[in-house]
Amino acid sequence: MRRFWRTFALAALVLVVGAGCGVSGQQRASVIPRADVPSALWEPSPPPVSPSPAYPAATIYLVEAKDGVLVPVHRSQQQASTLFALMQSLLVGPTDAEVARGLTSALTAVSKINNVSRSGTLATIDLGSSFSEIRGQSQILATAQIVLTAVSFPGVDSVLIELDGHPVTVPLADGTLTSRPLRADDYSCLLVGSRPCAPSSESPPPPVSLPSPSATASS
């Protein structure tokens, strides 16, 4: 009898040891202590890098002092993040290097842009009254600088110019006065390398001025 129990106990021990060395038929997930996990796996992932904003190309138009024609020059793309920023860059005028190349601006008398607004493809540029101090051919060049610079901004193809919130008439390339929206074609003959503008039968344009109070009241 003792031999039987001794044999049974030995067989049971063999079964237990064998089970410990085998592979369990049931695969279960187990929790790994934090101390056993490499520290690099606990570090948070870096945030995704946002792409840099895509600014439109920045082009303003300056005047070649020798021939009185308009020349496109480039500015950093950040200076064209908005249409207002682009027009402000135009008012700043040429850099020292551009002055050395013989470039200037007919807008030196203009010190302020009151507002820039858009309605579809039409941009309205509201200037300070100092724009009215520009005379003669300089007035034509100044208007052309504003229009050509504004329409170089993506989505803009025509421009209205106001002075202190009031609509005004401004000269086209040939000196003809108009109050309609202005387009690049109206001043293309003033660009460097273009054919000269056809002369106008009208007298040189008078200075741009604000409407009289009576005219404003009647409208």
TrEMBL record:
Tell me the Pfam families matching this sequence. Germane (PF10646)
Tell me where the signal peptide lies.
none
**What region holds the GerMN domain?**
83-172
Top-level taxon of origin = Bacteria
Q: Which stretches of sequence are listed as region Disordered? A: 195-219
What's this protein's name?
GerMN domain-containing protein
The organism encoding this protein is Acidothermus cellulolyticus (strain ATCC 43068 / DSM 8971 / 11B)
Classification lineage: Bacteria, Bacillati, Actinomycetota, Actinomycetes, Acidothermales
